[in-house]
Amino acid sequence: MSFNILITDDSATTRAIIKRTLQMTEVPVGTLLEAANGLEALEVLQNEWVDLVMTDINMPEMNGIELVEKMKESPDFENIPVVVLSTEGSETRIEELQNMGINGFLHKPFTPEQVRDLIKEALGDWDE
Q: What residue ranges do the domains of the chain occupy?
């Protein structure tokens, strides 16, 4: 089994770092999809099968919080696990996101092991 993962971040460099980090983990990745903001992410979700969304918080046009809100409002997307990777991470912000139903949060920068563990927590264990 492999997972299709949508990486949503306004920085192309950060998206590339996350893709490279995923390649360094044991996560069975199918397709890595990318979006530069929440609006692009919703478009990808409408057109592609996505098993997990990894998103930043601060992005133009539609930020990560708005993306999570839109996903939770949609019967098609409400059950897709979401993990947030961000430099912003006050306890209040993390609590707000958890109350919205995100599956995990990591502060940037992060290690491949932290990403792997976060994905395992969000998607459940897989046969390695």
A: 3-123
Report the predicted TM-score, pTM, of the whole model to 2 decimal places: 0.94
pLDDT, tens digit, 9 for 90 and up, residues 88-121: 878 888 899 899 999 999 999 999 999 999 999 9
d(CA 60, CA 37): 6
Which CATH number does 3-123 carry? Answer: 3.40.50.2300
